[in-house]
Amino acid sequence: EYQFQKAKPLIDNYVNRAYRPIEKSIKDYLEGSRRKGQIYGKNLDSTGLFRRDCQYFSDKRNPEESLDCAVCVLVDESGSMSGSKIESAIIMSLVMQGLMRKIKVPCQISGHSTSWETVNVDVYQKFGENTPENILEMQAHGSNRDGLALRIVGKELELRPEKRKVLFLVCDGQPAHNNYGGDEAKADLQEYHRQL
């Protein structure tokens, strides 16, 4: 079992490594920036006059108040995720939680499994909260129905006011439940994808 304080330096390192490549893009988006290499525009970019692709213009992107995005991470907590798989899923969830907090994007972290005929979706961190220690409570148990769990969490995400919504599924690619697996599970996930 993970102790958050022991894992924190590793998680912070991963968060910083993930943030570095996107830092400038986020800053430019929020503060506004000049986009060079445009095919048309009001401003002629003299540094692009020698381009052969006719992208001689630049324009100003207006600043934005926020990224206007919400993120949800759904982790498969079935028995097949035991050992290093669930440990990796926990680390990934903590990194995602830390990165989204750093860029001020609301993030929900959930896990799912089944018991008998019930699909259980446990919310370890709700949108707008900062509860990384709850994520450490994830554990591999039971079976899973990825399609139904995705629909449940996707519906919650759909109700968010943000314009952009991103849903990550962290799994081992082995959905299994009573009469649910293989081609049937694949078809279920493909159907959900078409509905998006």
Number of distinct beta strands: 9
What general outline do the C-alpha atoms trace?
elongated
User: Widest sheet: strand order?
Assistant: 6-5-4-7
Approximately how much helix is present in the residues? 25-40%
How would you describe this protein?
This protein is α/β, with parallel strands linked by helices. Helix content is 40%, strand content 25%. The chain is built from five helices and nine strands. The chain has helices at residues 4-31, 84-102, 132-135, 146-158, 182-195, and strands at 33-38, 43-44, 57-61, 69-76, 107-115, 118-125, 164-170, 176-177, 180-181. The protein has a four-stranded mixed sheet, sandwiched between helices. A hairpin with a 2-residue loop joins strand 5 and strand 6 (118-125). Helix 4 runs parallel beside helix 5. The longest helix has 28 residues, at 4-31. The two termini are 36 Å apart. The model has no long low-confidence stretch (mean pLDDT 80).
Q: Which keywords apply here?
A:
alpha/beta; elongated; single chain
Fold blueprint:
Blueprint: H1 4-31, E1 33-38, E2 43-44, E3 57-61, E4 69-76, H2 84-102, E5 107-115, E6 118-125, H3 132-135, H4 146-158, E7 164-170, E8 176-177, E9 180-181, H5 182-195
Parallel strand pairs: 4-5, 4-7
Antiparallel strand pairs: 1-3, 2-3, 5-6, 8-9
Helix pairs in contact: 1-2, 4-5
Short description:
This protein is of the alpha/beta class and 196 residues long.
